[in-house]
Amino acid sequence: MTGFASTSRRTALAAGIALTALVAATPALAQKTMITGGFDVGPGGFQGNFNPLAASAGFTWLTTYLEPLVVYDARLERAVGALATSWQVSADKLAYTFKLAPGAKWHDGKPFTSADVKFTIALAKEPKSGSVFAARLAAVKDVKTPDDATAVIELSQPNASLMDSLTKLMMLPAHALGGIPVEALAKHEWWSKSPIGTGAFKFVKYETDQYVELAANADYRGGKPKVDGLINRYFKTTATAAAALKSGEIQVSYVEVDDAKTFAGNPAFRVVEADSYVVNYLGFNHDAPLWKDERVRQAVMHAIDRNAIIQSLYAGAAKPANCAYVADHLVPAGLEPYAYNPEKARQLLRDAGWAQINGAKPFTLLTYYNSPQALNVMAAMQAMLAQVGINVVPKAVDVPTYNATVYAQSPDWNQYPVVFAGIQIGPDASNLNIALNDKQIPPAGANVARVRNAAVTAALDAALAETDDDKLAGRFQEVCRAMNKSVPWGTMWVAKRYGIVSTKLKDFTWLPAPAGGPYDQKPQAWSIAP
Length: 530
Hints:
Elements: H1 2-25, H2 27-31, E1 34-38, H3 59-62, E2 70-72, E3 79-81, E4 84-89, E5 95-100, H4 114-124, E6 140-147, E7 150-155, H5 162-168, H6 174-177, H7 182-185, H8 190-193, E8 201-207, E9 211-216, E10 229-233, H9 238-247, E11 252-255, H10 257-261, E12 269-284, H11 294-303, H12 306-313, E13 318-320, H13 342-352, H14 354-357, E14 363-367, H15 372-386, E15 392-396, H16 399-406, E16 418-424, H17 433-436, H18 454-465, H19 469-486, E17 489-502, E18 505-506, E19 527-528
Parallel strand pairs: 1-10, 1-11, 14-15, 14-16
Antiparallel strand pairs: 2-3, 4-5, 5-7, 6-7, 8-9, 9-10, 11-17, 12-16, 12-17, 13-17, 18-19
Helix pairs in contact: 1-9, 11-13, 18-19
């Protein structure tokens, strides 16, 4: 791990030198007022080809130049308008009518209209586009466009997750993308070379693996931004981003809890702490014979001392999860706490016939988490599981490799009998559906663990179809109960997330959660003191 961190620091230093050289060689850039940050450090934050249809994170950055119809407010409690100024939902919850923002324009000057909404949703429903929204938007039957300023989304059945999905769906220009074959869009160079949005900033350029530069959109409907541009720096680890903060190279970044402590009490910075809304879990591949007996899955829960890991490796900045929810109103009383009990784990394994199922044969624990902290967490889990006779071998890969493995049409379960991953489960509880419902197994959705659990699916279906808002929390409590009993995943914990912001930044609304946004951050109001 020491060598890994050292390599990361050298990489960050090289990127910093390159950026400094760029500014020195470009006097016009040096005279501009720029905010530079590590806006999206961590798995999923760096989108590669910047295709927002494939994004599961990185929204803090994406929404500075692209925009959805709606976002969450800065308290992450309710949806507020972005490219839509208002909306109405029919009594049967089958029609959502959106009034679009007057004066909204694409960065090339063309107007944003309801035709773009229709185009974007059609594209997002098409898996060939590389979209992660196809399953989420399956209930969308049609998008009507009675006039340029009105879009009506019609559903075939109620879908409680629609508004949450729309907060993450960046609107796209029909006139710019309509001529590109759908199957060519996923990896098209347009996303990283010439994208246009409707946001407060315009895309300027991407310097491969180093940074992205944006320029202020003087014609933004919310007013001209107070700074001339933004630069998003990319770092291999949050530790290298923390070093760049201290050296003054950047003004904002995500960091891990240990790094956050080093900024406490420093008047030059403020520490931002927020719930991550991301549950870390062990995803048991249900195509693997290893996990067919739920007693084996329950044994894993009892074998891992989650509280010890939280205290020692997360510095106490996390809380155990006994289902995929941790919000008080979604977690019912009486759940099995799965207390650390290695002897009980051994007994469950004996009862299930683990010696005949697998015995001491090692198998892979696949993950996309590559930080030193995550590697330490997996090493701790590996040691604890070994004590009860389950021998896993952690294997960390990059996000594209992970996705290619778990989303494969006919995957070999031997490549990933179990994964260590995270899922964003807030602010809207319905996010869980795409990852656990048996109708969401790839390519339909993101149920990469191939979970086929009738009780969990039935509970999720009932929650998504609920039209009475007063009953919705109770529906998701039933999902929680079903998960807790049968353990389709080994839910571990929800950790806090931390960001560091220079006190030079003014009117800067920024949170390190959930998964980088999306929320009403008003980037046009951001400014920086000399």
